[in-house]
Amino acid sequence: MRIAVHGKEFNRVSAPFIAHIFEILAQFKAQLFVSSKFSQYLKKPLIKASYQTYEPGTDISHIQLFISIGGDGTLLESITHIGKSEIPVLGINTGRLGFLATISKEETEQALKHIFEGAYTLDQRAVLKLETNKEIFGSLNFALNDLTVVKKDSSSMITIHTYINGDFLNSYWADGIIIATPTGSTGYSLSCGGPLIFPRSGNFVITPVSAHNLTVRPIVVADNCEISIEVEGRSKKFLVSLDSRMASVDASIKLKVLKADFKVQLVQLESNSYFKTLRQKLNWGLDVRN
């Protein structure tokens, strides 16, 4: 099996665990491809398995499985390496919460064995695409989690004029706005009062950030909608982000959000499910009275 691996910088405590992952992959005779960034931290004799390196942005469509080692941020970065190729991605969690990177250190060895035995399914996640009148993110104009438009630094609030399929929705007086996929509904949107959305529900959620009007609330719309945004404010600059990628732009920019024509394929083991992840990560059902 041809497997690509990407991860974040790790410390001495995590080093034996990283080495163990490569040992398991070598035992199954996997042909390994490691991102050039991650390979900088893989020093011999720590990593004994042989591998090739690849540069992010190059074609890796020949890869059969992508392994992300880190937290959700690392997995989101891994998605930019995969792009439209829809390579199945497995997230091994060495971070904290991990809604996307759900495989814990304790589960990793068994999880990898299940992978090579074919005992897994693919959870298809919708991706949003950003179109603009001026190029911002180049070919990486997509996000698995969300698009955010927020004021810059400590400047005054901004006004975000929002349209759905050309029909005026609202002018948000706020610190910003979030347009999240169901996957992203457990991220920034959730912390701003947005709802949890089941991954296969076919929706986007629009969530204001610190809205000036208390009556303004998040709204769920169909993901086949075209969401258009225009921004104005006292400050000449504001920030636009796609997942972890951020750019500073001015009010002349016009933004349009649509559903992308490809999906992200998350590997899901038979023992796991979306609802199980919610219960574990959000501590549902835990009560000192129980």
Give your account of this protein's structure.
The protein folds into two domains: 2-119 and 270-282, Rossmann fold; 128-261, Probable inorganic polyphosphate/atp-NAD kinase, domain 2 (Tumour Suppressor Smad4, Sandwich). 18% of the residues lie in helices and 39% in strands. The chain has helices at 15-27, 36-39, 72-82, 108-117, 188-191, 274-282; strands at residues 2-7, 31-35, 52-54, 65-70, 89-93, 120-132, 142-143, 146-151, 158-164, 167-174, 176-180, 203-209, 219-222, 227-233, 237-242, 245-250, 254-269. It has a six-stranded antiparallel sheet with strand order 7-6-17-14-9-10. The relative contact order is 0.15.
How do the strands and helices of this protein lay out in sequence?
Elements: E1 2-7, H1 15-27, E2 31-35, H2 36-39, E3 52-54, E4 65-70, H3 72-82, E5 89-93, H4 108-117, E6 120-132, E7 142-143, E8 146-151, E9 158-164, E10 167-174, E11 176-180, H5 188-191, E12 203-209, E13 219-222, E14 227-233, E15 237-242, E16 245-250, E17 254-269, H6 274-282
Parallel strand pairs: 1-2, 1-4, 2-3, 4-5
Antiparallel strand pairs: 6-7, 6-17, 8-11, 8-15, 9-10, 9-14, 11-12, 12-13, 14-17, 15-16
